Amino acid sequence: MAPAINESRFLDDLFAQGKIGWRVEHGLQRLAYSTSYLEARAWLNGKMEEAGLKTRVGGVGNLFGRLEGKSKKTILTGPHLDSVDNGGIYDGPLGIIAAHKVL
């Protein structure tokens, strides 16, 4: 059986990334390729490297983290770090943090 996800660490990471690009009384502004998007990507890159993943940025700016396994099969998960203008912290980042925590 896989170990349980640490709820406190999960929420800490979710809220930490949610501060990047947050504007009081407006919401999240982390449009693709903006300064806040690049800051969030750097933050996530650090988290991935801490977890032992090999990271790379693809041709259009997407961050990939790879954890080598025993099989040649690949599992790919995690949506997006950007937001709609004045959005919330849960849309794409919830899936990113969840995907990171299943490692």
Précis, in short:
By secondary structure, the chain is α+β, with helices and mostly antiparallel strands. The chain is built from three helices and four strands; from the N terminus they run H-E-E-H-E-E-H.
Description of the molecule:
The chain is of the alpha+beta class and 103 residues long. The chain has helices spanning 7-18, 35-50, 91-101; strands spanning 22-23, 27-28, 54-57, 63-66. The strands form two sheets. Strands 1-2 form a two-stranded antiparallel sheet. It has a two-stranded antiparallel ribbon with strand order 3-4. β3 (54-57) and β4 (63-66) form a beta hairpin. The two termini are 13 Å apart.
Topology summary:
Blueprint: H1 7-18, E1 22-23, E2 27-28, H2 35-50, E3 54-57, E4 63-66, H3 91-101
Antiparallel strand pairs: 1-2, 3-4
Helix pairs in contact: 1-3
Average pLDDT level: 89
- Rg over CA atoms, rounded to whole Å, is 14 Å
Q: How far is it from the N-terminal to the C-terminal residue, by CA?
A: 13 Å
Structural class label? alpha+beta
Q: Segments where pLDDT lies below 50 for 5+ residues? A: none
Helix and strand pattern: HEEHEEH
Strand content: 5-15%
Question: Describe the biggest sheet?
Answer: 2 strands, antiparallel
Q: What is the count of DSSP helices, taking H or I runs of 4+ residues?
A: 3
What is the β-strand count?
4
Side-by-side strand order of the widest sheet: 1-2
Q: Tell the overall outline.
A: globular
